[in-house]
Amino acid sequence: MNFFSYKDGIYSAEDVPLDRLAEEVGTPFYCYSSATLERHYRIFSQALPADSLIAFSVKANGNLGVLKTLGRMGAGADVVSGGELKKARAAGIAADKIVFSGVGKTKEEMQLALAEGIFQFNVESEPELDALNAVALAMGKQAPVTLRINPDVDAKTHAKITTGTSETKFGIPFAHAREAYGTAAKLKGIAIVGIDVHIGSQITDLAPFEAAFRRVGELAQTLRADGHAITRLDLGGGLGVPYIEDNQPPPDPAAYGAMVTRVTKGLDCRLIFEPGRLIAANAGVLVTRVIYVKRGDAKTFLIVDAGMNDLIRPALYDSHHEIVPLREPVPGADRVTYDVVGPVCETSDLFAGARALPELKPGDLVAIQSAGAYGAVMASSYNARPPAAEVLVRGPEWAIVRARLTHEQLIAQDHIPDWLVG
Ligand SMILES: *Cc1c(COP(=O)(O)O)cnc(C)c1O
Which residues, 6 or more positions from 225, have their beta carbon under 8 angstroms from its beta carbon? Predict the structure, then answer.
């Protein structure tokens, strides 16, 4: 459930009509709903053991306004770069609620994270373990570490967001886990604290999660028998969300929580979760204006002012996003089949193919739904297009939480070398 709906005939975020925001902010813009972020966080956290750490995956939506909203609810952060670590801190999230994931942490990022005193490093390889050990020893510190184990479970999701099979770059193969923990235990700069797993994203079935968590549970027992102090299990993120209202819904957080509780029963570990999409996807929309309606021989194109540089998911993952007109259609209104496309000079700049929508005219506004996760964070300025602005709504209030760059600001990022001046 989310807090976007028609009010007095206009699609609104909580109490704010989105056409008014379009007038004030210009299009395209992302709009996030605080009440939706809070609701999703609350429902997820209530489904899990009370002492769990819920570390919001900053890569899903790193806007400071969003991070601060969640931080105030008690969320920690799962970061995958030094930049995300600094953003989480800038949003007021305590270092001891931050976990650091990712396959390519640099020594500088490790230094930063150790200096901040983060909760744990999720280490993904033996070379990374050696590097972290060296950095920690040089700083006179010990790094709290889980090893990310690749359980070789197929999450049955889109190939580009599957991470838990032996074909992907993520984690340490399950069969090598004992050896890797043995190596880690000998390193004085490393303090083993637990096990980490993350098998992918937009997972809509509990079975792959359960298979992965069972393997982690068994491994915890084996590692304890080997003498390691396993006190934490980081179970990653990945719970899917409905992108289409009337589709088979993904498992609800309560069912996920019940499964987790059952599978981890008796292990006596603190649990850590890294949800991203579940919290943020349906808490955001991308509002865009129709520029032209172009009738081709085979198709009718709705050309809008947002492009793949603003929202790349359809091009990258073939993802489905529902599209709704901001002006509420009259019941039973005729539908027209459109290809909804952006202005970017790429054939893949397509938000929706053959989509039946009420008839739209140039100047009309539409909202592309489920755009709150992996939307603005992946934006670029391809085609010298300033990425969409971002707005956060809270009840009747709203604020621009990231302004659109002007063309001049965008151009000022480039520098002409001396030898070309004059
Ligand atoms: C991307 C990612 C997440 C978040 O995944 P969602 O599907 O958005 O919940 C969590 N943990 C790690 C390690 C990730 O890479």
Answer: none
| Cα of 139 from ligand 1 centre, angstroms | 30
Among residues 207, 211, 195, which one has the least CA distance to residue 240?
207
**Cα 408 to ligand 1 centroid, rounded to whole Å:** 35
Do 114 and 252 belong to one domain?
A: yes
Centre of ligand 1 to C-alpha 39, Å, is: 19
Which of 249, 273, 297 is the last residue in one of the domains?
A: 273
Quick check: is 269 catalytic?
no
Q: Are residues 194 and 161 in the same domain?
A: yes
Ligand 1 neighbourhood includes 204 CB (under 6 angstroms):
no
Give pLDDT < 50 ranges for the chain: none
Q: What is the pLDDT of residues 248-288, one digit of tens each?
A: 778 899 999 999 999 999 999 999 999 999 999 999 999 99
Best residue for ligand 1 mutational test, from 59, 98, 272, 273 (most atoms within 8 Å of Cβ): 59
Range of the domain at 197: 102-273
Instruction: Identify whether 388 is part of a domain.
Output: yes
Q: SS3 for 300?
A: strand
Q: Is the CB of 238 under 6 A from ligand 1?
A: yes
The atom number, within ligand 1, closest to the CA of 200 reads 7
Note whether residue 83 is domain-resident.
no
**In 278-378, beta strands by DSSP E:** 284-295, 300-304, 323-325, 335-341, 350-358, 365-368
Domain end position, chosen among 245, 273, 301: 273
pTM of the predicted protein model: 0.96
Is 56 a member of any domain? Answer: no
Q: Catalytic: which of 298, 345, 384, 420? A: 345
413/258 Cα distance (integer angstroms): 50
Asked if residue 81 is part of any domain, the answer here is no
Distance 157 CA to ligand 1 centre (A): 13
Residues 115 and 260 placed together within one structural domain of the fold: yes
Q: How many DSSP H helices and E strands does the chain contain? A: 12, 21
pLDDT at site 167: 74
The pLDDT of residue 362 = 98
